[in-house]
Amino acid sequence: MSAQKCPEPGWQIGLSVPAGAAEIFVQALEPLCYATAIFVEDEAANLWRLTAYTVGPPPENELIAAIAIASVCAEIDEPAVKCLLLAESDWVAVSRSAVEPVSAGRYFIRPSYLEESSPRGAIVLTIDASTAFGSGDHGTTRGCLLALDNIAKESRIKHPLDLGCGSGILALAMARTWRRPVVASDIDEEAIRVTNENARINDVADLVKTHCSAGFNVAVTAEGPYDLVVANILLGPLVKMADDIACHLTTGGIAIMSGILGYQEKNLRPAYVAAGLQLISRFELDGWHTLVLSKT
Predict the structure, then answer these.
(1) d(Cα 17, Cα 24) in Å, to the nearest integer?
(2) Which residues touch 296 (CB under 8 Å, ≥6 apart)?
(3) Using CA atoms, how far apart are residues 279 and 287, in angstroms rounded to an integer?
(4) What is the CATH number of the domain that holds 230?
(5) Which residue has the higher pLDDT, 155 or 113?
(6) Which of 32, 63, 95 marks a domain boundary?
(7) Distance in angstroms (rounded) separating the CA atoms of residues 163 and 144
(8) Residue pair 35/91 in contact by the 8 Å Cβ criterion
(9) Angle 237-240-242 (CA atoms, 0-180°, nearest 5)?
(10) Is residue 26 within 8 Å of residue 7, measured between CB atoms?
(11) Structural domain boundaries enclosing 245
């Protein structure tokens, strides 16, 4: 597949944050961008520089919301953000140049434009993240995939939900693993479009049902209850949705929570313990924690 020029000019989003907050802002901005990069800006001041790229002007309302949510999660003041119009460039090629195949347990994720031999016996997922978050290489996504791999060794899942599906990687992984219908939801319409396209590419379009939803709306609720809920989001929304997730999870059902840094786990677990979920395992990758909980 050859890269195509985007008809709109490229834009750059730039901001500086403390080192401990850098990954939170990366995850918050990735759904809006084709590519992101972070690097040390001032080692003495412990500041990192985040640069993100979009095709066309950055969506103002979504950008403001993403920065606000990330600031709350990182417990810092909102940083100054600069958006610059750049010279014409091939932004699809920029995005692709940073993508490499990813292995996580039984799963092997590769972009459609790379011909890469897969490990023997692997479940191969072909993913083009495009403008939706999720090429599979982030610690949160890999943590969720490792959790799914572990669950698949012991449980037969019948009705899973991917809450905040991004590019659909986790929904596709569940559909391919258990060959059961999967519900996938996201607040972003572009994420839903990309998930549907990736489901088609991976021949599971008949198993993945998508909803554009902020959490448990009427459509997502009507599909439940679920025996597995995977939510790779951010700390704030995860805490707020603890009761909803528990309510729509079957007794004995499993919840996989990701999108939190190690030091944030202490802020997440009490909400789920109070909702009746107990921690059964944890995966730690690149400073990010993925928690596997069971409803008692």
Answers:
(1) 10
(2) 251, 276, 277, 278
(3) 19
(4) 3.40.50.150
(5) 155
(6) 95
(7) 12
(8) yes
(9) 105
(10) no
(11) 99-295
88 confidence band (pLDDT: 50, 70, 90): low
Closest by CA position to 138, among listed 114, 167, 106: 167
Confidence of residue 221 (pLDDT cuts 50, 70, 90): very high
Is residue 231 helix, strand or coil? strand
What is the full DSSP assignment across 248-289?
Answer: TEEEEEEEEEEEEEGGGHHHHHHHHHHTTEEEEEEEEETTEE
Structurally, the chain folds into a number of domains equal to 2
Average pLDDT on 63-82 reads 92
* Long-range contact set of residues 101-108: C-beta below 8 Å, sequence gap at least 24: 102/135, 102/136, 102/137, 102/142, 104/136, 104/141, 104/142, 104/145, 104/146, 104/149, 105/145, 105/146, 105/148, 105/149, 105/150, 106/149, 106/152, 106/177, 107/145, 107/148, 107/149, 107/173
pLDDT at 9: 62
Q: Is 224 helix (H, G, I), strand (E, B) or coil?
A: coil
In this structure, the answer to whether residues 169 and 266 fall within a common structural domain is: yes
The span from the CA of 107 to the CA of 198, in Å, is: 15
Task: Name the least confident of 83-92, 152-161, 200-209.
Answer: 83-92
Residue for token digits 């025996």?
Answer: 227
Is 5 inside any structural domain?
no
Does one domain contain both 249 and 275? yes
- Tell me how far apart the alpha carbons of residues 211 and 186 are, in angstroms, rounded to a whole number: 7
C-alpha 153 chain-centroid distance? 23
How, if at all, do strands 288-295 and 249-261 pair? Answer: antiparallel
Q: What is the mean pLDDT of the chain?
A: 85
Tokens encoding 113? 């434009």
